[in-house]
Amino acid sequence: MITSTRSLTRRFLPSARTAAALALALPLTVGTAACSTPPSGNVAPYAVAAQRDPAFQSAFRHGFADVDGVRMHYVTGGSGTPVVLIHGWPQTWYGWWPIMPALAEKHTVYAIDLPGLGDSTGSPTGYDKATLARYVHRLVADRLGVRDARVVGHDFGAAVAFQYASQFPGDTATSTCRSPDPRSTRPCTAR
């Protein structure tokens, strides 16, 4: 029996829709798994990222706070005016690591892991920007006592920072967004 190439293709190759779904699912699965910090020896999972940087370890500390059923992770250090750093997707606080020591020279720095990313655990009531901004505010204002935050967001975090400033203008000194739109080359700043 001779089978045409066309029928073999239909039988063994996935449809374009299935192939597209698989192509999207793989990076999302791998990317999400990469967002949590892997354990390493006797080092706490949340501290692994900076374990080879003793200067960073002595200047910054990791903290956790429960916010409406979500255990939120943050890294803080320095002293001065408070700066809250909100990472993009699918990133963690560690995306801010290179600039945190310089910021800490004049500011108290808070780099957070958004709910569902990094070492923050639990399920928020929603993953939309407005809801995440409320979780960040509950962490920063209610748990950490910061009422005059300079909120800085990158990528998806820029939209969360914008929502934070919009919903809580009395607790926001400034809001700076970096790359909220992939086509943008300019930062947006609001007072």
UniProtKB/TrEMBL annotation:
<dbReference type="GO" id="GO:0016787">
    <property type="term" value="F:hydrolase activity"/>
</dbReference>
<dbReference type="InterPro" id="IPR000073">
    <property type="entry name" value="AB_hydrolase_1"/>
</dbReference>
<dbReference type="InterPro" id="IPR029058">
    <property type="entry name" value="AB_hydrolase_fold"/>
</dbReference>
<keyword id="KW-0378">Hydrolase</keyword>
<protein>
    <recommendedName>
        <fullName>AB hydrolase-1 domain-containing protein</fullName>
    </recommendedName>
</protein>
<feature type="signal peptide">
    <location>
        <begin position="1"/>
        <end position="33"/>
    </location>
</feature>
<keyword id="KW-0732">Signal</keyword>
<feature type="region of interest" description="Disordered">
    <location>
        <begin position="170"/>
        <end position="191"/>
    </location>
</feature>
<dbReference type="InterPro" id="IPR000639">
    <property type="entry name" value="Epox_hydrolase-like"/>
</dbReference>
<dbReference type="Pfam" id="PF00561">
    <property type="entry name" value="Abhydrolase_1"/>
</dbReference>
<feature type="domain" description="AB hydrolase-1">
    <location>
        <begin position="82"/>
        <end position="169"/>
    </location>
</feature>
